[in-house]
Amino acid sequence: MRLTYINHSGFAIEADGYAILIDYYKDTGKAPHEGFVHEKLLQRAGTLYILASHFHPDHFNPEVLKWKSAKENIVYIFSKDILKRKRAAKEDAIYLKKGETYEDRNLTIEAFGSTDVGISFLMKAEGKLLFHAGDLNNWHWQDESTSQEVSEAEKSYLKELNDLTKTTDSLHVAMFPVDPRIGTNFMRGAQQFVDRIKTDIFIPMHFWERPAEVEAFGPYAESHGCRYVLLSIPGEGTDI
Prior knowledge:
Elements: E1 2-7, E2 10-15, E3 18-22, H1 36-39, E4 47-52, E5 74-79, H2 80-84, E6 94-96, E7 101-103, E8 107-112, E9 120-125, E10 128-132, H3 147-165, E11 170-177, H4 188-196, E12 198-205, H5 211-214, H6 218-223, E13 227-228, E14 237-239
Parallel strand pairs: 3-4, 4-5, 5-6, 10-11, 11-12, 12-13
Antiparallel strand pairs: 1-2, 1-14, 2-3, 7-8, 8-9, 9-10
Helix pairs in contact: 3-4
């Protein structure tokens, strides 16, 4: 399989006979309809699964719904908050909430929780377990929050992480937020993640335009047996 960074928290995963696009909000090119998704993924034979973890515009672009007129075999799998917020209609997609599962002959997708809006995705494809966190993270904002708010944020995050570990304690690939905007200890959620879940390949996301700062998580991830893959240029990829 091949994983390609699209933008922000968006990734494409190409497998034998199908592909998965997660949390698309814009393509890799300079113009809106130029780049990897429009020029390669939408032209690729086989089923295209389009996943959206929640309604935030940096994770969900309703443009994706227009693609069904140009490509056959698109399966839309969205978090239920997208329907609730009326960003898409009931007939547009398969909607999941935490604890629900989608399965077909190609892959299995189980919805886990988030500490913001929507869900995270645990995917089984070609015998590999892949996790996309959506906006699941330890959003503790230590520099601007009270100690109680920080404690509550951590408690909420560790509860969701514990729910995931009840299903699996190891992953082939994790796509997880490492967001410098948090400030002090911005890597804490990612550290707690690899402390608890053996991860073969860790791919940071949601770092906005600050990838240089995210390089700092590499040594910690690698000390826990991860291959740390920082993809910061849209269209960059790695074999998984």
